Task: structure prediction
Amino acid sequence: MNVYLAVTDTMADWEIGYLTAELHSRRFFRDPDMAFNLVKLGVTLDPVHSMGGVRYEPDVTADTVQLQANDLILLPGGDGWETPLVKPILDLARDVLDQGHNVAAICGATVGLASTGALDGRRHTSNDLASLKAACPDYAGEALYRHKPAVRGDNLITASGLAPLEFSYEVLKMLKVWRPDTATAWYRLHKTRQERWYHALVASMSPDSP
Result:
């Protein structure tokens, strides 16, 4: 399985911080030895810098990506999703959604997807409906907009930039790299900070856990 993380200049580090840490470390994977790669997807192979100043070197470009079953394209927020520069990545995301592959987008990336028409026929959310309509005059998905932190509509996950935890939870469930009870305990621990969910998380890693 591959997760293709779109890396662009001004990428919002915090919006995918939970995901990159958990996917790279594999510390809660149901099978730590499973075939899994976190692949950096760029407009070009030139290095970019996140909003936090972290330097990323893309591994692949959009024109070389061939998704397999269960792969995911992950689109973090940032300041550039309404510019022509990122169109190859957005077109790829729209096309693979139509083919039945998985895509997850948060914050500004949802606006980029809306500009391609990818949200018109799928349940989704964004930072704000009025702002989404103003930024994308041709957007026609208002009837399927949900005023929630994160929304899954079949093979698409979208989220507000204020909901990185909820976004991560939905993505981890979609990928199925964790047991369901692990994902639930992890989310509730971070959401509530209650000790009992830490113990539930530890228990979920037991070999006897379903």
